Amino acid sequence: GKHTVHLDSKTTNVRVEPFALQMGIKFELHVTISGKTINVSEIPVLSIPDDWMRDKLELHFCKPERGGGEIENVEYDKMSRRAVITFLRPE
């Protein structure tokens, strides 16, 4: 449909059209668990910004159905293809 958008002192009309999203990328992670942290290695190199990769890792490991929990911090190093994920609790 058509929509009117107000930005600052200007108004513009926009039209929304559906579009297809690309399929997600599946990859295998190698994980070592120790207390409140897990070490993730062999993270594939993807052409996305580092902060997006940190977000993807956080979303994956925070899900309770995957044994995850609330995350305190994600350290990601693209060069070594490793990440350290720290949870709030050692569950």
Automatic annotation (TrEMBL):
GO terms for cellular component: cytoplasm. This is NMI protein. InterPro entries: Nmi/IFP35_dom, Nucleotide-bd_a/b_plait_sf. It holds the Pfam family NID. Transmembrane segments: none annotated. Residues 2-73 form the NID domain. The gene is Nmi. Signal peptide: none annotated.
